[in-house]
Design brief:
Elements lengths: L6 E5 L3 H12 L3 E5 L7 H6 L7 E2 L3 H6 L5 H10 L2 H10 L4 E3 L4 E4 L5 H13 L3 E3 L3 E5 L5 E5 L2 E5 L3 E4 L15 H6 L5 E7 L3 E2 L4 H7 L3 E10 L5 E10 L3 E3 L1 H5 L1 H11 L2 E6 L6 H9 L7 H9 L3 H10 L2 H5 L1 H9 L1 E5 L1 E2 L7 E6 L16 E3 L13 H22 L1
Parallel strand pairs: 1-2, 1-10, 2-6, 10-20
Antiparallel strand pairs: 3-5, 4-5, 7-8, 8-9, 11-19, 12-15, 12-18, 13-14, 13-16, 14-15, 16-17
Helix pairs in contact: 1-16, 4-16, 11-15
């Protein structure tokens, strides 16, 4: 599609696009970087508001397993850009990192803004020309990249282009999935976009919703059954939302839960509310005579359950079950929550689906559009939060740029 030119365009100013531009500029290319928003990295900044999770310190093979069905495609990219190299790269930008108690890696300042400023400053110092408020709309009849800007339509002739346009979540920050229709018109094979790292709907009672929406549920173990029958299990915390559940523990299992709902119309998330206690221990506690104490007082003082955890039991169990020590104990160790739907894609942290890897050649170039490469979340992969998403985006951006350079050299 692109015509002969000395310019290389990178469309999308998120982590994947920035990483691609960095590799291209280091190779001496004339790079134009475009983004639809008024400034670069809008979603990157938003994701880092609560503490930018750059990557994860767990062993590399465990790290790679987080990419699920697309591990084979992501593994070579991440091996070429492993977590430690990201820490070294950040240090080169003047950003020191540390490993948190969960194994996650954060900048010392915990914020995304200092890293983004240093990154963009270095790109511009290396000759990358940045163009904000340029929304890519496809190609014109002459094969030039077409952009909508506040001053009207404009076009750019580029020798090659890397598209790093994100998925379909957080449209207000530029990641709206509008590119799907553009590429589909050119015959590019695209898997439908779906919410990933998302919350789920549960039919809470009005009382529970009104009293506990927004409450964190800490130190629990959650499990679910994937569509292939595999039993998945994670430990951490989540948040009760107005509609159901959300938060890091839910996100870690969201792919399996979403796919189960797609297939069966519902999914079950099973909670162990006291993961550090055995069923025998919990049964002994629930069976202990409580005398004149209320059940709530007994649960708090003897069993160690109060607040939102105790309320979850009451939400899920009837009065008879709450009064039965054995049924109560079993529910504490395996409380089923019925999930009815994933929350809308625009509420999700990320999306699954996108340009299928089968649509790319060995350099990451679209087979249907020579000279057009894809990177980042617009590719068909997903990963949980915890540094895996950001690492995958940066790694795929670098990989696309290296593939583009090889293609030009050939």
């Amino acid at each position: 599609m692109p015509h002969s030119s000395s310019r290389i365009a990178v469309v999308g100013g998120g982590p994947a696009g920035l990483a691609a531009a960095e590799v291209l500029a280091a190779a001496g290319a004339h790079v134009d970087l475009f983004d639809a928003m008024p400034s670069l990295g809008r979603k990157f900044l938003m994701a880092g508001r609560g503490g930018l999770n750059l990557t994860h310190s767990e062993p590399l093979e465990d790290f790679l397993s987080r990419y699920g069905e697309r591990q084979a495609e992501l593994a070579p990219m991440v091996r070429a850009c492993p977590p430690q190299s990201l820490c070294d790269w950040a240090r080169g930008l003047g950003i020191e990192t540390f490993v948190g108690t969960s194994g996650r890696v954060f900048p010392r300042e915990m914020k995304a803004a200092p890293l983004l400023r240093a990154w963009v400053h270095r790109l511009r110092a290396n000759g990358v020309a940045t163009h904000a408020r340029h929304r890519w709309t496809g190609w014109d009849e002459a094969g030039r990249l077409r952009f909508a800007t506040p001053d009207g339509q404009t076009a750019l002739e580029a020798r090659a282009v890397i598209l790093a346009l994100g998925g379909g979540s957080w449209a207000r920050l530029g990641s709206d999935g509008a590119w799907v229709q553009v590429l589909a018109r050119h015959g590019v094979d695209i898997a439908p976009l779906k919410p990933a790292n998302c919350g789920f709907d549960i039919g809470w009672s009005d009382f529970f919703r009104g009293k506990f929406a927004g409450a964190p549920v800490k130190n629990v173990q959650a499990s679910c059954e994937a569509t292939d029958g595999a039993q998945l299990q994670r430990r951490g915390e989540f948040v009760v939302s107005e509609h159901g559940v959300q938060g890091s523990l839910v996100y870690a299992l969201s792919a399996a839960l979403r796919d189960r709902i797609d297939r069966d119309g519902r999914a079950v998330l099973t909670l162990d509310l006291l993961p550090d206690r055995s069923l025998a221990r919990v049964l002994a506690d629930t069976s202990h005579p409580r005398g004149a104490r209320s059940l709530s007082s007994h649960l708090q003082s003897r069993v160690g359950l109060a607040g939102v955890k105790a309320a979850l039991l009451r939400e899920a169990l009837d009065r008879e079950a709450m009064q039965d020590p054995e049924r109560l104990a079993r529910a504490i160790k395996a409380l089923p929550l019925a999930l009815t739907a994933a929350r809308p894609m625009d509420e999700a942290i990320s999306t699954a689906g996108g340009v299928r890897f089968e649509a790319l050649d060995g350099n990451g170039m679209l087979r249907r559009l020579p000279g057009v490469f894809c990177a980042g979340e617009m590719l068909d992969w997903e990963a949980p939060t915890g540094g895996y998403l950001l690492t995958g985006c940066i790694a795929s951006g670098r990989t696309a740029a290296q593939g583009l350079l090889r293609w030009l050299a050939s």
